[in-house]
């Protein structure tokens, strides 16, 4: 049996398949489309796709088939099919199905297996009016080259290679309101125009895919994550009834959810000078709203600062002081669940079936008790009941929360456990609300895997880039340079290019072991990981205490109090961080520049970051075995750490990290 795709395009062609027979019909609009033919006794309803076409898949045997399109009740020929047949007083389009031979792609043979340019962000990626990325996809090793033709200037052309396909991506800019374009596919003696009869059109006044720009300030910025309860105690008068000694003997109990040390917002205010001297440009705070735990992910009141952290007045002062020092502030938003102390949940406990907040949650049975059997909760934890985010009243409450804290001047939100919530909530509610209040606010989602889905509509400007963490630590442990490049390329080549510089590149967090602990307290390996983090494409996020060598296994051990007594600091690590942060801030190549791999061999990795006016080369070896490189450099370079002039990279020593600055 052979499968045949029958396509009707109602607006604009964005896809064509050369490997399977296609039937195409142009029309301005249609509300209902069917296909009739001698392969069915009744009209077959076609499916409208999000690419603006109608599609239906059939399984047909080899032979000839008569068919017509039924568009809003009117029978119409497939005018793109020149094969017709007259039968029973009516003219039909004729579909010929023949046994297809297996196609093997080959460069230069003049044959093209398929070309894809569909209505999704992978292929059509508008940033803002006049600024857009356009891509076509072909089979791997099937064509010689591809070119863009249209009323726009190509700013950059890239060829991305995947397992089975290649993507030619063109970043183009134009002053025109309507972009008209096509692609030229070159292979052997053949040049194929795609589309062959007309041009694709993109109307910037009526974009078929949402614009997706990100705040410029987020690109390459240096972030610092603070777990407030454990960072600094600036006001002992607001301490919980019982607090552990800051420098005491830590236990899993003292560091756990019910253990308190007294960290607060006043402590953060007192640490701004420290953050400024380190070179920090933005802080991300774990939850600070009223809660009964030390981690504050079980929110009791989203409109109040936890009393053990301070109050609105303290918060406003903190934001003001941070702004004076050009440090942005990001708050942690926990909107997939509340704590069981939240007013709506408490009302349900009291009033049961009479509660007006029943639809704020997902109640399973009555009477409602503090039990996962009574209501849906996060991972079955009864103290974290799951919110019904489709309830308009819940959305109204969240809108109030967003409005209050953004009015106080915060610069964005980090969103907890985003995969526990439907994408539509983030895309159609949260993102528009936040951007409507402040289009320059950043939205970062916590997701540990491939986050492509969140950039389609979009939902977020960036994510906590755990994919980078996995790749960087895997490499620093002695992994191959090839695997590091392969693992980072999985997202670098897949995510929209405008967000690559905004990605939050972390090595650890409040949910993971400390990076230095993960690396068995090996400082050389830790320096390699940190060096990669500070020179890689994206925005580095430092977890509080990493810069002084703070250790710790997984939660709660990764949440120890920050030791402000410098006697407990590893000054070698601190100075290393400070030096790399200074370098990053001084070189636009590291902050905004392009990324290119020069060489990978065993544990040896060489890559460069560059702009038109700046270039930095990074040399690393994750293993003890030296590797010969024999690379002649095109220009004069200086080793950042030693000041030595370098013209040739002959050998890469074991467990090393070097930075070369072009003069």
Estimated helix fraction: 10-25%
- The CATH class designation of the largest domain is Alpha Beta
Please give the radius of gyration in angstroms.
29 Å
Tell me the domain tally.
5
CATH architecture of the largest domain: Alpha-Beta Barrel
Gist of the model:
Helices cover 20% and strands 30% of the residues.
Summary tags:
single chain; 663 residues; alpha+beta; Immunoglobulin-like; TIM Barrel; 5 domains; eight-stranded parallel beta sheet; 13 helices; globular
Write the layout of secondary structure elements.
Layout lengths: L1 E8 L5 E2 L16 E5 L6 E2 L1 E2 L4 E8 L2 E9 L2 E3 L7 E4 L2 E8 L17 E2 L7 E5 L2 E9 L5 E6 L2 E9 L3 E9 L4 E10 L2 E5 L5 E4 L19 E4 L25 H4 L9 H6 L1 H7 L3 E4 L3 E3 L7 E7 L6 H13 L3 E6 L9 H9 L40 H16 L4 E4 L7 H15 L4 E4 L16 E2 L2 H11 L4 H12 L11 E3 L8 H4 L4 H13 L3 E5 L27 H16 L1 H4 L2 E8 L2 E7 L4 E7 L5 E13 L5 E8 L3 E7 L1
Structure in words:
- The protein is α+β, with helices and mostly antiparallel strands and 663 residues long.
- It has 5 domains: 2-97, Sandwich (Immunoglobulin-like); 115-203, Immunoglobulins (Immunoglobulin-like, Sandwich), CATH 2.60.40; 219-335 and 389-586, Alpha-Beta Barrel (TIM Barrel), CATH 3.20.20.80; 337-388, Oligo-1,6-glucosidase, domain 2 (Alpha-Beta Complex); 593-662, Immunoglobulin-like, CATH 2.60.40.1180.
- The chain is 20% helix and 30% strand.
- It contains 13 helices and 35 strands.
- It has an 8-stranded parallel β-sheet. Strands 2, 11, 12, 13, 15 and 16 form a 6-stranded antiparallel β-sheet that branches. Strands 3, 4, 7, 8, 9 and 10 form a 6-stranded antiparallel β-sheet that branches.
- Helix 7 (423-437) links the parallel strand 25 and strand 26 (442-445).
- The longest helix is centred in the middle third of the chain and has 16 residues, at 392-407.
């Amino acid at each position: 049996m052979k499968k045949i795709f029958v396509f009707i395009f109602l607006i604009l062609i964005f896809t064509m398949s050369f490997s399977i027979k296609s039937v195409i019909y142009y029309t301005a609009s249609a509300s209902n489309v069917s296909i009739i033919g001698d392969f069915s006794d009744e009209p077959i309803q076609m499916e409208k796709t999000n690419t603006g076409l109608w599609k239906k898949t059939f399984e047909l045997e080899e032979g000839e088939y008569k068919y017509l399109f039924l568009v809003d009740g009117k029978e119409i020929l497939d005018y793109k099919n020149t094969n017709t047949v007259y039968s029973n007083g009516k003219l039909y389009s004729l579909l010929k199905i023949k046994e297809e031979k297996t196609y093997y792609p080959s460069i230069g043979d003049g044959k093209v297996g398929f070309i894809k340019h569909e209505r999704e962000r992978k292929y059509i990626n508008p940033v803002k009016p006049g600024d857009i990325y356009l891509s076509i996809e072909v089979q791997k090793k099937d064509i010689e080259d591809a070119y863009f033709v249209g009323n726009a200037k190509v700013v950059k052309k890239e060829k991305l290679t995947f397992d089975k396909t290649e993507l030619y991506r063109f970043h183009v800019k134009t002053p025109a309101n309507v972009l008209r374009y096509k692609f030229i596919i070159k292979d052997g003696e053949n040049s194929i125009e795609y589309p062959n009869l007309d041009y694709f059109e993109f109307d910037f006044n009526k974009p078929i895919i949402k614009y997706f720009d990100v705040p410029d300030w987020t690109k390459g910025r240096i972030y610092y994550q603070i777990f407030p309860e454990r960072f600094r105690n600036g006001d002992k008068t607001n301490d919980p009834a019982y607090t552990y000694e800051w420098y005491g003997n830590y236990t899993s109990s003292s560091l756990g959810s019910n253990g308190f040390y007294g960290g607060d917002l006043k402590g953060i205010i007192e640490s701004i000078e420290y953050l400024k001297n380190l070179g920090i440009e933005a802080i991300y705070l774990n939850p600070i709203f009223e809660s009964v735990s030390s981690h504050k992910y079980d929110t009791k009141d989203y409109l109040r600062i936890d009393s053990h952290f301070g109050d609105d007045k303290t918060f406003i002062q903190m934001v003001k002081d941070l702004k004076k020092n050009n440090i942005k502030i990001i708050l942690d938003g926990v909107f997939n669940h509340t704590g069981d102390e939240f007013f709506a949940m408490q009302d349900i406990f009291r009033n049961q079936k009479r509660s007006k907040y029943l639809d704020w949650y997902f109640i399973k049975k009555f009477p409602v008790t503090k039990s996962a059997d009574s209501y849906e909760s996060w991972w079955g934890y009864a103290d974290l009941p799951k919110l019904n985010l489709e309830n308009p009243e819940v959305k109204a409450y969240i809108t109030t929360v967003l409005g209050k804290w953004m009015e106080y001047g915060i610069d964005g939100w980090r969103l907890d456990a985003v995969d526990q919530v439907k994408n539509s909530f983030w895309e159609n509610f949260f993102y528009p609300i936040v951007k409507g209040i402040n289009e320059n606010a950043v939205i970062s989602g916590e997701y540990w895997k491939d986050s492509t889905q969140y950039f389609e509509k979009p939902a977020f400007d960036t994510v906590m880039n755990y994919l980078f963490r996995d790749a960087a630590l895997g490499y620093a442990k002695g992994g191959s340079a090839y695997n590091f490049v392969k693992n980072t390329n999985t997202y670098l080549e897949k995510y929209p290019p405008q967000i690559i510089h905004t990605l939050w590149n972390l090595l650890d967090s409040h949910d993971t072991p400390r990076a230095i602990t993960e690396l068995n307290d090996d400082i050389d390996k830790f320096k390699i990981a940190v060096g990669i983090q500070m020179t890689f494409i994206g925005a580095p996020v430092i977890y509080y205490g990493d810069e002084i060598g703070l250790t710790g296994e997984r939660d709660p051990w990764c949440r120890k109090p920050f030791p402000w007594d410098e006697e407990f600091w590893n000054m070698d690590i601190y100075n290393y961080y400070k030096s790399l942060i200074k370098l990053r801030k001084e070189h636009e190549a590291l902050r905004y520049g392009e990324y290119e791999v020069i060489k990978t061999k065993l544990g040896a990795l060489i890559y460069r970051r560059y702009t038109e006016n700046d270039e930095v080369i990074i040399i690393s070896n994750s293993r003890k075995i030296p590797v010969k490189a024999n690379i002649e450099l095109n220009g004069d370079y200086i080793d950042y750490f030693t000041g030595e002039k370098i013209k040739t990279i002959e050998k890469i020593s074991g467990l090393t990290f070097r930075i070369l600055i072009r003069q």
